[in-house]
C-alpha cells in the first residue's frame, strides 16, 4: 500500500494535534503544581524534572498502589529497598559495563544527536498512523534484525533508504552509527587518588538479584516467589525528550519472580495478563493499551513484551514483562564465586531459579495517568458554550481526596467548615478554602483532580448536613456530616482497585 499525498498531509496534521495535546498537558502540569523543570531559575537542566505539591502526592499514590498490589495481593511477594551504589563488579556480571548501549547517530548539518533506533521507530509510527501497518511492522522487524546482528552500518543505510531526515536541518547527511554506553559513573573514596570508579545504577533489578538468597532465607519464601522494589535509577540518555517520558533520573517499580526452570513461560503469561488487568483497573481504557512483543531480545531474555499506552505522541512503552531465564543469578554466581542456588525440597533438587520480571517506570506511569485524566469538554453556561477542563483521576489515586468550602466567609460558616476539615484531615488528604466565589473554588479543585468538594451552607448550621459535589458529573448530593468519613473512605480506598484484580 502506497501512502498518498493526502494521507501524508493527514498524518502531519495528526502529529501537530498530538504535539499540541502534549503541550497542553505539560503546561497544565506546571501551572497546577504537578511537575516543574528542575533548577528552573537557572534555566533548568535538560531532561530533569521536579514534582510539585500535587504531583508528588499523585506519584506517591501510584507507587503505594503498586506496592500494595504486589505485596498484599500476593502472599509470595515481598519487598526490599536496595542501595543505589553497588560494587562495580555487579554491573560487569549483569552485562551493563560491556553492552548497556544505545545506537547513536549525528546529523552533520545540524550537529544534533539522535538515537538511531528511535528515528526508525518514529518512521514506522508514521506509516502506522497513515494506515500502512504492514509496512510499519516490516520496518521494525528489519531494524530488530540489524540491531540483533549489530550491523550498525546497515542501520545507517536503512535510515537513509527510508529518507529519514533530521528535524532541525531537514537533511539526511548522517554520520556512522556507533554504540553509546548509558551508565553514569562517579568516584567513591575520600581522596581522588585512592578512589575507585562506581556507577549510579541504571536499573533496580540487580539489587534484587544479589540479595536473592538473603531475602529467600529471612522471609522464609519457597519457589515460586517474588521480590519487589521501588527506587531511583539513572541513565545518560542520548536524547531525552517527551517531557517526563524519558529522563536521566527516574524511578522504577520492579518485581523479580523466581520460578523453577521450565515453568518460566507459564508465569510469563500469568504476569502479562495480571499487569494489563492492573492498568485497566486504575482507569486506563482498554483501547489505549496493547502488548508489543520484542523483535530484538535483550541478552538475558528468552521472551519479552511491553505494555504500551497511546500517549499524545503515539503508542509507547510503559511497562516491560521479561522472561530473564537464569542469566542474572548465573552471572553473579560465576563472578562472585558465591553459590546462588535454591534447594527445592519438593523435587529434592538444587538449581538456579529462572526469573520473570515486571518493570514499570513510575514517571511514565505518572505521565500515562495524567494524559488519560486530562479532560476538556464543552458545557453549556447559560447562552454560552464554555470549555471545562478537569483531571478525571480515579479517586483512589487523586492527590487531594476532598475540599471543604464555607459558602461565605462569615456568620459561623468558616468555623463549621474548619470543624469538618479538622475531623477528616487525618484520614484523607484535604484542602480547606474560603477565598473567592464558590464556583471558582470548584474549578480550582477540578483542575487538580479532587473528586469531592464539600460545601457548608446555612442549612448545615440547622441540620448538620452538607452538599457533596462530584468532580466528573458536577452532581451534588446532600448528606449528614456524620456520613462523610465512610462515604469518602469507600470511594478513595485502594480496595476499589484491588478488588478488581
Automatic annotation (TrEMBL):
Protein residues bound to ATP: 235-237, 245-250, 317-318, 361-364
Binding site for substrate: 115, 203, 250-254, 357-361
Ranges for domain Aminoacyl-transfer RNA synthetases class-II family profile: 139-399
Any one cellular-component term (Gene Ontology): cytoplasm
Keywords in alphabetical order: Aminoacyl-tRNA synthetase, ATP-binding, Cytoplasm, Ligase, Nucleotide-binding, Protein biosynthesis
Subunit structure of this chain's protein: Homodimer.
Location(s), subcellular: Cytoplasm
Keyword Cytoplasm: yes
Native source species: Aureibacter tunicatorum
Tagged with keyword Ubl conjugation: no
Taxonomy of the source species: Bacteria, Pseudomonadati, Bacteroidota, Cytophagia, Cytophagales
GO biological process: diadenosine tetraphosphate biosynthetic process; glycyl-tRNA aminoacylation
TM segment ranges: none
Record-given protein name: Glycine--tRNA ligase
Family designation: Belongs to the class-II aminoacyl-tRNA synthetase family.
Gene3D superfamilies assigned: 3.30.40.230, Anticodon-binding domain, Bira Bifunctional Protein, Domain 2
Gene: glyQS
E.C. code: 6.1.1.14
Pfam family, one: HGTP_anticodon
GO molecular function terms listed in the Swiss-Prot or TrEMBL record: ATP binding; bis(5'-nucleosyl)-tetraphosphatase (asymmetrical) activity; glycine-tRNA ligase activity
